[in-house]
Design a protein that fits this description.
alpha/beta; 13% strand; globular
Length: 378
């Protein structure tokens, strides 16, 4: 086994988390990546970076860089940054040679060891959904989504009392943007009681962070990302790779098939709203077209030529391309980090009824592509 230790830092996206009240957000990614490193006989350390959930990209990047500085050690082993969603922007900003993160140079000495930046379903050219989330209704829906995400991942589905409050707060299909803030507060209190003493403070701090600081939301609009890309340079000697996916647009037939339970109905309603906003191409700041090599990979994995209307429900697919496209497939925004329905072992949990039918075979292929890129020596 190689003596060199690879350090891999996993960075969550907006309203994501590292470990919260006993649940590991990247559990499935960690498990498969560990197998890839072990099979290659390469020593490794995987670490999760708990970033402020909706804070500005600069504040989030500062947190990541500081944690790497404190944990990377004094050796010369390679460092890899892997970011999901907005976490990929955090990684790009840190890697940029012109960045100013208010950290002195000795605390950034580890950047000489940075070998790769990999982004997973990252909005490199923004997402139309960000503009919606900056509205009053959108902000409340974002908070409701955060509640739904955590309760589903942590408990396998919202407990009945919490779910009832979410239903009341979010409303019907036609009223989905009219979220009731008082009912959200009631839902939050129910959730905190259900979590128990050990995780209550962690969850409260995470939810308070979403309410208190949403600086990152406006920064991932297509207009703001135009500035980000003009100011953020790729670092020499660092390999950049990306993973991208698309999920099917919602249709009445697909929506009906998801109505087998109240929870699936709520999930399908939310997905319909999110996808309808995300798939509206920005006419002034559209995503760049994919080159023929990337388009070939997209067609093979997604099954169609990808234009600005194709998305994973949160981010336009063309917005996800940066550096070398490593993998593409039919999956929604959280499928790609292991949050999909699994009938085999039941250890994967899906919170968004997108109808992508993503499974462990597709997930393994994505992690194979990620692992191979991290282990490359060129």
């Amino acid at each position: 086994m190689s003596e060199e230790v690879h350090r891999v830092y996993l960075i969550p996206g907006m309203f994501g988390f590292g470990r919260l009240a006993g649940y590991d957000y990247f559990e499935h990614v960690e498990r498969l990546l560990a197998k890839r490193f072990q099979a290659a006989g390469v020593r490794y350390l995987l670490e999760i970076v708990p970033t402020p959930p909706t804070a500005s990209i600069r504040r989030r990047a500062h947190r990541v860089a500081d944690q790497v500085s404190r944990t990377a050690g004094d050796g010369d082993g390679p460092i890899h940054l892997v970011g999901h969603s907005t976490g990929g922007l955090d990684a790009r900003l840190i890697a940029s040679p012109t960045v100013c993160l208010e950290l002195d140079q000795p605390r950034l000495a580890w950047k000489s060891r940075l070998r790769s930046v990999v982004t997973i379903n990252t909005p490199h050219h923004g997402t139309p959904l960000a503009g919606f989330f900056t509205t009053v209704s959108g902000t409340r829906l974002l908070y409701a989504l955060s509640l739904l995400t955590f309760t589903t991942l942590r408990f396998g589905g919202p407990p009945l009392t919490i779910f009832s409050s979410l239903i009341a707060a979010i409303g019907t299909v036609d009223e989905v943007v009219g979220v009731d803030i008082k009912l959200l507060d009631r839902t939050t209190n129910l959730l905190l009681r259900f979590v128990g003493d050990r995780g209550r403070d962690e969850v409260r701090d995470w939810l308070d962070g979403i309410r208190r600081d949403q600086g990152g939301i406006i920064q991932i609009t297509p207009e703001a990302m135009d500035i980000f890309n003009a100011a953020t340079e790729n670092a020499k000697g660092v390999r950049y790779g990306s993973l991208a996916s698309a999920s099917p647009p919602p249709t009445p037939v697909r929506l009906v098939t998801r109505m087998r339970s109240p929870y699936q109905a709520l999930s399908a309603t939310i997905y319909t709203t999110l996808h309808s906003v995300t798939s509206r191409a920005n006419k002034v700041y559209p995503c760049p077209e994919a080159d023929e090599g990337a388009q070939k990979i997209l067609r093979a994995g997604i099954g169609r030529t990808v234009d600005n209307s194709v998305a994973d429900g949160i981010v336009p697919t063309l917005s996800m391309l940066w550096g070398e496209l490593l993998w593409a497939g039919r999956a929604d925004h959280l499928d790609v980090v292991g949050h999909f329905h699994d009938d085999v072992a039941g250890d994967h949990v899906d919170w968004l009824a997108s109808g992508s039918h993503f499974d462990r075979t597709g997930f393994a292929a994505a992690m194979d592509a990620l692992g191979s890129f991290l282990l490359r020596t060129d």
